[in-house]
UniProtKB/TrEMBL annotation:
One annotated GO molecular function: methylmalonyl-CoA epimerase activity
InterPro entries: Glyas_Bleomycin-R_OHBP_Dase, MeMalonyl-CoA_epimerase, MMCE/EMCE_epimerase, VOC_core
PANTHER family on file: METHYLMALONYL-COA EPIMERASE, METHYLMALONYL-COA EPIMERASE, MITOCHONDRIAL
Name under which the protein is recorded: Methylmalonyl-CoA/ethylmalonyl-CoA epimerase
EC number(s) on file: 5.1.99.1
Lineage: superkingdom: Bacteria
Protein source organism: Virgibacillus litoralis
PROSITE patterns: VOC
Keywords: Isomerase, Metal-binding
Family from the record: Belongs to the methylmalonyl-CoA epimerase family.
One Pfam family hit: Glyoxalase_4
Domain VOC: 4-135
Length: 138
């Protein structure tokens, strides 16, 4: 299986300030900005491209149910997850199952950009939140 870094997700408290930093200091370009009220997401997301790489800035929209709000309370702002494009998510999930690596089943979804994604269980990844994703319609 081929793995390619897709993006890095960063938990932030103030989306405006973070966008400003990534645009003016790092020379990034804002590609998209949207809110997701989906259960288990509840975040506002800004996608930036910096030097050909993507960064997602994630700010909670619900401070009681958003996983980003929980992350900020537990660990503070900073890298939330690393996402790998796996080519075929279904095959990657089968491979994980065969290797006894668990996933967070309720995180499986397709976002507004057509990216199918799921998070691996951090208990099986030395505490790092890892996202596997593919783009089946591209």
């Amino acid at each position: 299986m081929n793995f390619k870094l897709d993006h890095i997700g960063i938990a932030v408290r103030n989306l405006e300030d973070s966008i400003y930093f990534y645009e003016t200091i790092l020379g990034g370009s804002l590609i998209d900005r949207y809110k997701s009220d989906a259960k288990g997401v509840e975040s506002e997301i800004a996608i930036l491209e910096i030097g050909g790489n993507r960064t997602e800035l994630l700010a909670p929209t619900n401070n009681t149910t958003s996983p980003i709000a929980r992350f900020l309370k537990q660990k503070g702002k900073g890298v939330h997850h690393i996402a790998y494009h796996v080519g075929d998510l279904d095959k990657a999930l089968e491979d994980l199952k065969n290797r006894d690596i668990r996933v967070l089943e309720d995180s499986l979804r397709t976002n507004k950009h057509g990216r199918r994604l799921i998070y691996l269980n951090p208990a099986d990844t030395d505490g790092t939140i890892i996202e596997y994703c593919d783009y089946p319609n591209q």
